[in-house]
Hints:
The protein is built from 13 helices and no strands. The protein is mainly alpha-helical. It has one domain. Helix 4 (80-104) packs across helix 9. The longest helix is centred in the C-terminal third of the chain and has 26 residues, at 232-257. The protein is globular. 48% of the residues are buried.
Amino acid sequence: MDANLTTRTWILLLLCNLFWAGNSVAAKIILDQYDWLQAAWLRTASTAASMILGIFAFRLIRAQSLFQQAMPRFSKSGTLKWVIAGGLLTFVGSPVFYAFSLVEGKAVEATWVVVLEPVILFFLAAVFLGEKIGRMRWLSFALATLGFLLFAKAFEAGTFTEMHRVPFFWMLLGATCDGVFSIVCRKAVDEGWRGLAVFWGTTWVGAVVLTLILGFSHGWGHSFPRIGTMHLRTILALLWVGPVGTALTFGYWVVNLEKFPVSAMTLTLYLQPIFGSLFAYVLLRETLDPVQWVGSALIIAAAFLSSRSGK
Length: 311
């Protein structure tokens, strides 16, 4: 496994981060027309549908190697637990937590929480992959925790007792669920699956589960959004957050997980908050207050220390 990203991979991963940075803004636009559970379902269902279309496209253009990579190997039954876990956390938990948080929270806040992912990933890797945590990473965890508390305004009166109502708290849960995806992919790849196959399996686990949740909670009649009743702005936001901002970009991410270390790839996440802040300001006129900027700086410092401490 090569420890250094190629120039081409760097550029394409930065483009992925550009689209990821706009996902929270696109989700806010979708929430103008639908509730948080419908918005979460739209993201996961459109991603799963895009994966099916992609697989058929691989077959039609005779891209046999890509087609074979995208097909799950159900004979590897022991790996199914990782695929199911990834589906439940990344394509049920993450979209639900993010959509719920954005009902009251700002899109610009969601774009900054992603910088915590490298810190989260290192601790998940220690638990599930047996990697050791050094003193610098413990320091990064302390800085990230302080940054989180400042960003979430936890030092304001009454915030601790009402933390479950703080949007940033739910965003952090969403980021943790996203971090699980890279760990799940690496575990499944180590056990014989290809990255695209893991992605295909996890998206469809999420789509099926969210469909059942939405159907039983909202009723099976008119609870599912229909393209014909969507506003043009909502359709464009859905194309961004689902087929492009998740299916295409996550697909490229998992392909590279087979070639490069997770720590090298997470370095590209640092530009995502900058892109996201620009999107949120231009499209939604959202900004951060001074205390949140201090928290953001601490979070970036923590993520930087986490990545450098492993070298």
